[in-house]
Specification:
Layout lengths: L6 E5 L3 H11 L4 E7 L12 E8 L2 E7 L11 E6 L2 H13 L3 E2 L4 E3 L5 E6 H7 L4 H11 L7 H9 L1
Parallel strand pairs: 1-4, 5-8
Antiparallel strand pairs: 2-3, 3-4, 6-7, 7-8
Helix pairs in contact: 4-5
Length: 159
């Protein structure tokens, strides 16, 4: 990896599976070098995959197979901006349909417990609109959703 800053994500033992899933699901994503442990470690043996380098939507990451001690939680998430309902549906359905789970307001978790915000640009744009009544209508509509429905956001935007 050539980036000075890389996100390290802790997995129990499935970092390569996660990296492969992200690479096939998100544009501008790829799997890079895999490092095998040069010796035994608390949750693995010499030769086990210790880390995998990967990129998710242009963001460099390392997946660490560190064992069951630490779990992902909502304090960290990837926020993926989408351009239309088709892209929103494709990404949401890929994550949830691969053993993930739905949450509220465009959030979902993948099967490894990592949180994702699948966020249409129209929602983000409306939330920062100088017309605060418009922003509130859009916010109120979003609060009723799991996966974001762009048509409903547009309807709220129009009033």
């Amino acid at each position: 990896m050539t980036s000075k800053n890389t996100i390290c994500l802790w997995y129990e033992r499935d970092a390569v599976d996660a990296a492969n899933f992200y690479a096939k699901t998100f544009p501008d994503s790829a799997v890079g070098a895999i490092m095998r442990a040069p010796g035994d470690y608390p949750d693995g043996k010499q030769g086990d995959v210790l880390t995998v380098e990967f990129t998710v939507a242009g963001i460099p990451c390392i997946g660490l197979n560190g064992g069951p001690v630490f779990k992902h939680n909502e304090s960290f998430s990837f926020q993926i901006a989408t351009d239309d309902q088709e892209e929103t549906d494709r990404l949401w359905n890929a994550i949830v349909g691969n053993g993930g789970q739905e949450s509220d307001c465009g959030w979902c978790k993948d099967r490894w417990g990592l949180s994702w915000q699948i966020t249409p640009r129209v929602l983000t744009d409306a939330m920062v609109d100088p017309d605060r009544a418009l922003a509130k209508r859009v916010f109120d509509a979003m609060m009723t959703m799991k996966k974001i429905d762009i048509a409903a956001i547009e309807a709220a935007r129009q009033g």
